[in-house]
């Protein structure tokens, strides 16, 4: 049943749960971005999800444009994923021994991507943390290069913000990360070839790896300029550094082969290491890092670089992930791409009509909207930061009131699924004129 699109939705029960949550959990949430700090108000406590829809504790339905921050490519409670998980659970939930579904999931990842081998872990953070350790172990070097605005999980050495200038010694992005942890991290502006060339010319022999989001989605969607990833791969190779492509968000989402399917597969290069998460866990905690056989061979127990995990390759998580990937056919990707085109076009038109300056940027089916940015095109974090977040805030709440759950931050990708059918899309489209009007008023204010 679809919601009616009421414009005032009570959030009494969510507010009560939020208050309870605050007493026992810092900020009332288990991951900061779920709180509404950037937009104000009360996050909704969800009790169920089905297809493209979520239902909250107050009984309201929402079209979900978060999709669990990426994983739910098939939509919520997909019957075949559910059945596979239910079947797996009857055989126990964790063995602490090798099991078949982890091999099958690894085979599926190796078949879809250019990696020779993978190691399964439980979160994207673990995947990038382990990939960095492996790159350092393999090269015998310490320095890591990353880009401002790229998020790779809450790994100490990668929680670094850029200062201004071309290559700054990173400043820790949070208290609790010792200066020593980011001393060997260099942060550059995204899409800036000259900055990359300069830092490799100066420090190339010290650089273990360059890590980048394959197509950044954590500063809003800021795709690589054509050929940028290839340039990074070649630059790393020239200096004996490893190219680590983080596909935790894009992997198995923007195409069958992730972002690499959109660039590397055609341009004829491959990353030395890749990281995956989100979609490959089918809504469960499963992630992976993988790459060249000679690099992966350095990993314990085959090699000297230690890495481990009690729940790594968990049979339920790997069953959910494997079933999801097997169901993620070309038709699924075609549907999600088309839905993204329909929706992003409608958003752009609604904002145009209301006179709200904006930019819609895409990477395959991932897209985001920059409200009142001071640039013509967002190519890096500075450009993304030039938007007016108060305009997004007004838009966000108007959409929420009309039953559309957007990511509660202007710096996030919007996500769709195979379950976002015409009905769900129309519900979002119907909410747009009023939300665009609210955004226009925020622009004036
Ligand atoms: N890398 C990228 C590109 C991500 O988007 C994320 C999470 O959003 C991570 C790594 C960290 O993954 P996780 O939240 O599973 O630790």
From TrEMBL:
<feature type="modified residue" description="N6-(pyridoxal phosphate)lysine">
    <location>
        <position position="278"/>
    </location>
</feature>
<protein>
    <recommendedName>
        <fullName>Glutamate-1-semialdehyde 2,1-aminomutase</fullName>
        <ecNumber>5.4.3.8</ecNumber>
    </recommendedName>
</protein>
<keyword id="KW-0627">Porphyrin biosynthesis</keyword>
<feature type="compositionally biased region" description="Low complexity">
    <location>
        <begin position="1"/>
        <end position="14"/>
    </location>
</feature>
<dbReference type="InterPro" id="IPR004639">
    <property type="entry name" value="4pyrrol_synth_GluAld_NH2Trfase"/>
</dbReference>
<comment type="subunit">
    <text>Homodimer.</text>
</comment>
<dbReference type="InterPro" id="IPR015422">
    <property type="entry name" value="PyrdxlP-dep_Trfase_small"/>
</dbReference>
<keyword id="KW-0413">Isomerase</keyword>
<comment type="similarity">
    <text>Belongs to the class-III pyridoxal-phosphate-dependent aminotransferase family. HemL subfamily.</text>
</comment>
<dbReference type="InterPro" id="IPR015424">
    <property type="entry name" value="PyrdxlP-dep_Trfase"/>
</dbReference>
<keyword id="KW-0963">Cytoplasm</keyword>
<dbReference type="InterPro" id="IPR049704">
    <property type="entry name" value="Aminotrans_3_PPA_site"/>
</dbReference>
<dbReference type="GO" id="GO:0008483">
    <property type="term" value="F:transaminase activity"/>
</dbReference>
<comment type="pathway">
    <text>Porphyrin-containing compound metabolism; protoporphyrin-IX biosynthesis; 5-aminolevulinate from L-glutamyl-tRNA(Glu): step 2/2.</text>
</comment>
<dbReference type="GO" id="GO:0042286">
    <property type="term" value="F:glutamate-1-semialdehyde 2,1-aminomutase activity"/>
</dbReference>
<dbReference type="Pfam" id="PF00202">
    <property type="entry name" value="Aminotran_3"/>
</dbReference>
<dbReference type="InterPro" id="IPR005814">
    <property type="entry name" value="Aminotrans_3"/>
</dbReference>
<dbReference type="InterPro" id="IPR015421">
    <property type="entry name" value="PyrdxlP-dep_Trfase_major"/>
</dbReference>
<dbReference type="GO" id="GO:0030170">
    <property type="term" value="F:pyridoxal phosphate binding"/>
</dbReference>
<dbReference type="GO" id="GO:0005737">
    <property type="term" value="C:cytoplasm"/>
</dbReference>
<dbReference type="GO" id="GO:0006782">
    <property type="term" value="P:protoporphyrinogen IX biosynthetic process"/>
</dbReference>
<keyword id="KW-0663">Pyridoxal phosphate</keyword>
């Amino acid at each position: 049943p679809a919601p009616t699109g009421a414009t005032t939705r009570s959030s009494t029960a969510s507010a009560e749960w939020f208050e309870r949550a605050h007493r026992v959990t810092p900020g009332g949430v288990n991951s900061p971005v779920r709180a509404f700090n950037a937009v104000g108000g009360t996050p909704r406590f969800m009790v169920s999800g089905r297809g493209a829809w979520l239902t909250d504790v107050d009984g309201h339905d929402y079209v979900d444009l978060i999709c669990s921050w990426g994983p739910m490519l098939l939509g919520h409670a997909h019957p075949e994923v559910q059945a596979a998980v239910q079947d797996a659970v009857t055989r126990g939930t964790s063995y602490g021994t090798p099991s078949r579904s982890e091999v099958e999931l690894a085979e599926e990842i190796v078949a879809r991507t250019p990696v020779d081998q993978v190691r399964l872990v439980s979160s994207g953070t673990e995947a990038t943390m382990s990939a960095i350790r492996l790159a350092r172990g393999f090269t015998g070097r310490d320095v890591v290069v990353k880009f401002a605005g790229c998020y790779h999980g809450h790994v100490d050495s990668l929680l670094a913000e850029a200062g201004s200038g071309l290559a700054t010694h990173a400043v820790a992005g949070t208290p609790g990360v010792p200066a020593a942890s980011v001393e060997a991290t260099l942060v550059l502006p995204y899409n800036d070839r000259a900055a990359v060339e300069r830092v490799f010319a100066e420090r190339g022999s010290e650089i273990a790896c360059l890590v980048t989001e394959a197509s950044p989605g954590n500063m809003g969607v800021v795709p690589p300029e054509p050929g940028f990833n290839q340039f990074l791969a070649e630059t790393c190779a020239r200096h004996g550094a490893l190219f680590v492509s983080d596909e935790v968000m894009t992997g198995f989402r923007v195409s069958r082969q992730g972002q690499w399917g959109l660039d590397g597969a055609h341009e004829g290069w491959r990353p030395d290491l890749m990281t995956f998460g989100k979609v490959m866990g089918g809504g469960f905690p499963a992630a992976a890092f993988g790459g060249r056989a000679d690099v992966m061979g350095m990993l314990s127990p085959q090699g000297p670089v230690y890495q481990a995990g009690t729940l790594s390759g968990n049979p339920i998580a790997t069953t959910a992930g494997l079933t999801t990937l097997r169901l993620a056919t070309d038709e699924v990707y075609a549907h999600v791409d088309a839905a993204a085109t329909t929706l992003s076009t409608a958003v752009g038109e609604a904002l145009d009509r209301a006179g709200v300056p904006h930019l819609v940027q895409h990477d395959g089916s991932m897209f985001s909207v920059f409200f009142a940015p001071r640039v013509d095109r967002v190519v890096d974090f500075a450009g993304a930061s030039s938007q007016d977040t108060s305009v997004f805030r007004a838009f966000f709440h108007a959409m929420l009131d009309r039953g559309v759950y957007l990511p509660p931050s202007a710096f996030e990708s919007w996500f769709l699924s195979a379950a976002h059918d015409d009905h769900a899309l129309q519900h979002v489209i119907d909410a747009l004129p009023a939300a665009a009007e609210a955004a226009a008023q925020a622009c004036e204010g």
